[in-house]
Amino acid sequence: MKRTGLLFFIIISVGIIFIIRLFYLQVVNNTYNKPTINNSAVKIMYDYPERGYVYDRNGVLLVSNQLSYDIMVIPREVQPLDTIEFCSLLNINKEDFIKKFEKAKHYSTRIPSTFLAQLSKNDYAYLQEKMHKFKGFYIQKRLLRKYPINSAPNVLGYISEVNEDLIKKNPIYQLGELIGTAGVEKTYEDILRGTKGVKYIQRDRFNKEIGTYKNGIYDTLPIPGKDLTLTIDSKLQQYGESLMINKRGGIVAIEPSTGEILAMISTPTYNPNLMVGRERSKNFTNLYLDTIHRPLLDRGLQGEYPPGSPFKVITALAALQENVINTTTTIKCFGGYRYGSGKGAFMECHCGTHGNPVELNKAIYRSCNSYFSNAYRKSIEKYQTAVEGMDVWSNHVKSFGLGNYLNNDLSVGKKGLVPDAKFYNKWYPDSRWTATYSISNAIGQGEILTTPMQLANMTATVANRGFYYTPHIVKDIFGKQLDEKYTTPKYTSIDERHFEPVIEGLFDVFENPHGTAHWSKVKGIEICGKTGTSENPHGQDHSIFIAFAPKDNPKIAIAVFVENGYWGSRWAGPIATLMIEKYLNGETLRPWEEQRMLNGSLEDEYNKQLIETIKIEN
Amino acid sequence: MRIRKVNIFHGIDWILVLFYIILIFIGWINIYSATITEEQIGLVNFSTEYGKQLIWIGFSFPIILLILMFEAKFYEKFASIIYLISLVSLVGLFILGKNINGATSWYDLGGLSIQPSEFAKAAASLAIAKLVSEKQFNLKKWNTQIQAFLILVFPAILITLQPDPGSALVYSAFIFVLYREGLPVYYVTIGFLAIFLFIITLYFGYLYVLIGSLLLFLVILLLFNFYRKKALKKGWLKILGIYLISVIFIISVDVVFNKVFEQRHRDRFDILLGKTTDIKSIGYNTNQSVTTIASGGLSGKGFLDGERTQGNFVPEQQTDYIFTTVGEEWGFIGSTLVVLIFISFILRIIYIAERQKSKFSRVYGYSIAAIFFTHFTINIGMVLGLLPTIGIPLPFFSYGGSALWGFTVLLFIFIRLDANRSYEW
Questions:
Q1: What is the second-level CATH architecture of the domain A49-230?
Q2: Domain that holds residue B54
Q3: Lesser CB count within 10 Å: N end or C end of chain B?
Q4: Coil/strand/helix, residue A544
Q5: Tens-place pLDDT, residues A222-256
């Protein structure tokens, strides 16, 4: 009968499929013979390598290691113990004990977890004698970070215990291990970490260790992490941090000829050593929850502000490139710029030239709003449609590295904003907009947003007369070539010849008696710079300054940003010039100015804002 | 009840008995390896699972003797009553049952847990055998089809409600039996088509499958139009009907999968179809089981030397995942041997069933072959990562008294029936 064949046929097929599958799993694809973590017959012992050190550009040690001791637990092996004694030894209470133990058990009953992390040397000495009483617990040595200099936490970052999500994604980490979670610790984790050594130990069924697993053929030695040399100048960094005490903001200094970041300051700052030791999680929570000072926010990289007047440099360069102005073009300024017939279509100007002809040089050192508004409008109206003109202009601006991530080796960053035609088409559909709609862009207000890092890079680009190297934080990785993207120059869309007149103007900001930063002039150093005052809705204007020096063959380009610092030459200007002096000469000729900056405080201003915010919220 | 006075072992098929003993023995060896602990405890001991299993094995011998003592005729005569008793015992669970691991599948008899669904399979097999062996039984007729269907659906529904959908799925095995006894071929075709559509709908999403089936439908219509115009005229309604039912099925698969299934069920399918690869949580069982088997290599690590078995890394290893122990400790050679033993065992049952003169015995034999085969396929398929996670035991291997006794009863009733084949009925 034909019908009897079906079940027979299916049974034989299933048998064949199963045998093929078994053959594939066990013979063909047998890659599972290496001992695994999930294996209780083989105990895995890790030998942690020393994490790489971090030095500054002059070889000053910034990050090293210190020994610490973790209490580890293998829940399955724990036997009834004197909990009270144990808790008092570790200085924890019983609830903590239960919570930590449950957490370890939840993770795995047979894989060791960290029970209590980062004991001090004293605790260790005390505990070591008693540990044998507590089966299933043992002490593991581990290296912790140590910061000899209390500086630059935003640059250095910190390490913390890996979380479970990360373990899932990257199985080389295990619960309780440490990983760089911010700053260079994060971006250069792979280099600093090294490779942990593994020892496989065979156990018998009764959990006794009976020697190395397969004569140690799978065992590996730890490979220490590599050292990093940063581009940071720690003296300059510390100096900048002290100048910014009681002021909020960011400073970024770059060496234009290489793109190396000399200093990257964000205030309020904190002591990096807070992120180490048993108090770490408490300290971290405090810093994290401080929403008033926000010390974990890197204002140099994450603060997006309207750049204000320093942006006029770009406006000028774009207009020169588009050939809508030249160095002799003049306009007359009567205290402002009328960009339409309406009543409010008037931009005030404080250049104080009272109708005398203003040419490019004067426009820069007097920071004349009318001049740059005129130049901006001409640049865009040169083209038949505003859309076309806007895109040409936008591309000029973007070629300075503005409006996008710099794509470098810093763990955080912001894009900023450089609008293009698409942006305005969205705001004003049907392309019914003209240059005057966005006239504030000319003077760095309007829609433009930049971070201090981008502003510093822009300054370095001007200092280089038209190109920049992607700003980066690592100077040297022991035995490894720096990424090519940090050693190839990126050129702007502006011809080199247009930079010289603009730089003359920036030079006159200091040199000309009417220059906006004449009072910050430093004897013996040819500084070029530009003040900026950026309006913001929360309180006093931000104080901004960009500068580079010396004028020829520049060694440093800097951007300083002081939140609510009233105007550019009040705080940012003196800080920028003091930094330049410090970097080039090692000391300042203006101790009075230095004192004024060191002692000056904007805390009253911030408190006022805070009170207003609270009032509004109530 | 009539109890025979002649030698109760007369005429029994010793080859099947030998298979039974071999399977029980290998099974227990692996349970021992999977559940042995560090303390040294005697073999027969209620505190260890291998000890308990040994006791269950011991108790199965009186059960076997009891089964063999009854006359073959008894099973045919009382088939309906046995079936009804099994239904009652399944219904009774809702009142008196004990909840273990979220399913109310157990009676608690003072420390001994009995799972009636393991015995219901034998009862259903008897009932089907009885129904089919009746005179004038014809599976081509609607009403007999419905009768057979109802016999199987009652226990299946009751078991699903426990809820233990895995065990209920076993009743689908009877389609082989009914097909063998004359069920029209399109039932089997529809069954396979449904499984096929179910899988491709999950894999590609219902939209693509609907588009694909529409195209296929149009192509078929065109082909008919060119080559078999007459057949098309006659059969176009049929083709359209099949197509529309397929469409409804595809859509309902999507609805059932996304609305009726719980996330854990969906996860199981997604893992199998390679849509998710999370090895830590939802795919943990399958990953552990496949890895453990693979680690056995060609010849295995040896008895009690499987690191992963001894490390208890496969969840439920002594029950549903017992085959992983075979895979790790006995390797490809041992696993293949076990697969071959099972296949031979099932084929032997079919062979014996086919030689029965009595239709009742034949149908019963066919039923238990199909049941053993379904258990074997679903269990090993799951352990090898070929089928979704469906928890049903591997016959004679998996730890558990009810399962062992249930399968023993299933098999030895057949051996009893077969022993009687030379007698007049």
A1: Alpha-Beta Complex (3.90)
A2: 14-175+279-419
A3: N
A4: strand
A5: 888 888 999 999 999 999 999 999 999 999 999 99
Position B73 in a domain? yes
Q: Does A9 touch chain B (CB under 8 A)?
A: no
Mutation pick from A8, A18, A40, A79 vs chain B, by most beta carbons of B within 10 Å, is A18
A117 to chain B nearest CA, in Å?
A: 25
* pLDDT for position B312: 65
Examine the domain organization and report whether B256 and B362 are in the same domain. Answer: no
Q: Which two tokens stand for residue A125?
A: 């000495």
Which amino acid makes up residue A427?
W
The gap between the terminal CA atoms of chain A, to the nearest Å, is 89
Number of domains in chain B: 2
A20 close to B (CB below 8 A)? no
Do B61 and B126 fall into the same domain? yes
Q: Is the domain of B234 the same as that of B369?
A: no
Q: Are residues B289 and B377 in the same domain?
A: yes
Contacts of B280 in chain A (CB under 8 A): 168
Contact between chains at A11 and B373 (C-beta distance less than 8 A): yes
Establish if A40 touches chain B: CB-CB under 8 angstroms: yes
A31 contacts on B by Cβ (under 8 Å) = 294
Cβ of B373 within 8 Å of Cβ of A14? The answer is: yes
Mind telling me how many Å the CA of B93 is from chain A's nearest CA? 34
Tell me the chain A residues in contact with residue B387 when contact means C-beta distances shorter than 8 Å: none
Q: Verify that B160 and B213 share a domain, yes or no.
A: no
CB contact under 8 A, A18 and B327: no
Q: Are residues B164 and B212 in the same domain?
A: no
Residue A110 sits at the chain B interface (C-beta within 8 Å): yes
- Could you confirm whether domain A234-278+295-617 is CATH 3.40.50.360? no
Amino acid identity of residue A392, one-letter, is: V
| Banded model confidence at residue A504, pLDDT cuts 50, 70, 90 | very high
User: Is residue B74 included in any domain, yes or no?
Assistant: yes
What residues does each domain of chain A span? 49-230, 234-278+295-617
Residue B184 lies in a domain: no
- The reported pLDDT for the residue numbered B40 is 58
A592 in contact with B, Cβ within 8 Å: no
Which amino acid makes up residue A115? F
Q: Mind listing the pLDDT tens digit for each residue in A575-601? A: 999 999 999 998 888 898 899 889 988
Can you tell me the distance from the alpha carbon of A265 to that of A152, in angstroms, rounded to the nearest whole number? Answer: 7
Nearest to B386 among A8, A21, A207 (CB): A21
Provide the 3-class DSSP secondary structure of residue A71.
strand
Contact assignment for B313 to A18 by CB distance below 8 Å: no
Q: Are residues B231 and B101 in the same domain?
A: no
Cβ atoms of A299 and A267 within 8 Å: the answer is: yes
Three-class SS of residue A107? helix
Q: How far is it, in rounded angstroms, from Cα B375 to Cα B166?
A: 10
* Rounded distance between C-alpha atoms, residue A150 and residue A238, angstroms: 8
Let me know the angle formed at the C-alpha of A188 by A182 and A189, rounded to the nearest 5 degrees.
75
On whether residue B272 sits in a domain, the answer given is: no
Query: With 0-12 CB in 10 A as exposed, 13-18 as middle and 19+ as buried, what is B310?
Result: buried
